[in-house]
Structure formats: structure tokens, C-alpha cells
Amino acid sequence: MWPADPGDLVGWSGLVENETYTASAECLVPVKALRIETQRLDEILLEDPASGMAFFKSLAAIIGRRLVKSYQATLSVHGEREPMPGG
């Protein structure tokens, strides 16, 4: 597992109806976390579509970064340094 960045989203899997957790987290220093039930978050985002778009754009970016890091880790296990063009 790679280190999280400040502001990273934990527990996002439940937001996209995924019943399998894709990662876990452990805080090394005291933090404040905000918990919002999925149904309530849906209500909030429906009330303000611009915020909903920004939220899911940020979520997609987080998922994309995790995918790239996972792909890079897979390549390093196989001794490859860079992805092949078009791959």
C-alpha cells in the first residue's frame, strides 16, 4: 500500500455501489474524519449538481492515480520500468 495524501478519500467504494473494499487506511497521527452516509451524500449532491460534478471528478482522479500506481507496481515486479506505448 502506498502513502495517502492529505485530503484523500477513504471508503469511496461504497459511493459507487461496490461491496468490496479496495484499500485500507491507518492514520499515523491524530486526524479528524468526516463520515457521510451514502444516501445523505446522494441527496446533497443532487441538490447542487455543480458540487456533485466536482466531487465525482475528484473521485475519478483518486481512482485514476491508484490505478496508475498499481500498474507501475505490477510493471516493477516484472522488471519493466515504463509502460509500452499504446498500453
Which features does this protein show?
2 helices, mainly alpha, single chain, 87 residues
Which spans have pLDDT < 50 for at least 5 consecutive residues? Answer: none
Computed Rg = 16 Å
Largest sheet: none
- Span between N and C termini? 23 Å
Q: Strand percentage, roughly?
A: under 5%
SSE order in H/E notation?
Answer: HH
Structural class of the secondary structure composition?
Answer: mainly alpha
Overall shape: it is: globular
Helical proportion, percent range: 40-55%
Helical run tally: 2
- Structural domains: how many: 1
Q: What average pLDDT do the residues reach?
A: 77
Total number of strands: 0
Describe the structure.
With 87 residues, the protein is mainly alpha-helical. It has one domain (12-77). 45% of the residues lie in helices and 0% in strands. The mean pLDDT is 77.
Short description:
With about 90 residues, the protein is mainly α. The chain has helices at about 40-45, 50-75.
